[in-house]
Amino acid sequence: MARFPTWVVIALAGALSLSLAGCSSTGGKRAEDARKAAAAQGRAAVNTPRWTFAMITHSGEGDTFWDIVQSGAKQAAVKDNINFLYSHDAQAQQQAQLMDAAVDKKVDGIIVTLAKPEALKAAVARAEKAGIPVVTVNSGSAQSKAYGALTHIGQDESVAGEAVGQELNARGRKKVLCVLHEQGNVGHEQRCAGVAKTFSGTVENLYVNGTSMPDVQAAIGARLQADRSVDAVVTLGAPYADTAVKAKADAGSRAEVDTFDLNAKVAAELKDGTLGFAVDQQPYLQGYQAVDLLWLYKYNGDVLGGGRPVLTGPQIVTKDQAATLEEYTRRGTR
């Protein structure tokens, strides 16, 4: 076995020490960043029990908004060691049945939307009676506390509508068509009512069949052809914005098209000026926070909001933010 003089051993030790010091300031940080990234992508960051949380929404098929909500919820579920279950139905009675099924499974927490609150009231009460904590998300902020939910996460729809009315005033608009694609959805009614509250011009509500984009396009186009004084169209969901743009072209209208919510198409159309502005309620954050808040409640008895909704919006976004938003929408987080 080779032996080295003491001075060689000391020199080697010093070099190793310097190397490790260098790693701690550069390579060590990169290693730590890589570790955190790996944890976020597939490994829990906590050692709490593997609880099961169910999310039940009023989403229809193919609604990209709810893909973003799920993306946030799933990311938080990985971090919090949660078994995450997702189900949805656009019909309120079926949504209530899905919630009853989650109660029967004895899940550890439920996240639910209250787009049509009366239809879900009994199901929420049943979960509460079973000792299952409930967080409402996205819609139903006015009913959430009364129904017994821990808290509500989302934007205040009336406040969001008021922000749109103010933005339209700043843009000099005079007559707005507010397009409601889901009749009976209280949040949609609140949005258009909020617009009317702060907008100094005229607001006309247009109810359309949101399950059929050709019908939506035809209805908006017909209204724009019939009334040339309409100089702004506001849609209440990102998938309907591009349909309104097509309807505008069909009608030969010069109305500005604006929308609630974001997706990749909206970000691209903000960037090229096809759309005027969008109202972002940050759906990724709604899903993420809903799971995280349930985990905090199960782990530590924590409740955010102080009896009031935890707001994730509204944020008015325009062409100025479009390039950054486009990157986020491509990865499914905005």
Strand content: 15-25%
Q: What portion of residues is helical?
A: 40-55%
Mean pLDDT: 89
Report the radius of gyration as a whole number of Å: 25 Å
- List segments where confidence is low: pLDDT < 50 over at least 5 consecutive residues: 1-40
Query: Quick one: overall form?
Result: globular
Number of helices: 12
Distance between the termini: 62 Å
Summarize the main sheet.
6 strands, parallel
Order of helices and strands: HEHEHEHEHEHEHEHEHEHEHEEH
Number of strands: 12
Strand order of the biggest β-sheet: 2-1-3-4-5-11
Commentary on this structure:
- Helix 1 crosses helix 2 (64-79) and helix 6 runs parallel beside helix 7 (186-198).
- Strand 8, helix 9 and strand 9 (256-260) form a beta-alpha-beta unit.
- The longest helix has 37 residues, at 6-42.
- Strands 2-1-3-4-5-11 form a 6-stranded parallel beta sheet, sandwiched between helices.
- It is globular, with a radius of gyration of 25 Å.
- Helices cover 54% and strands 16% of the residues.
- It is of the alpha/beta class.
- The N and C termini lie far apart (62 Å).
- It is built from 12 helices and 12 strands.
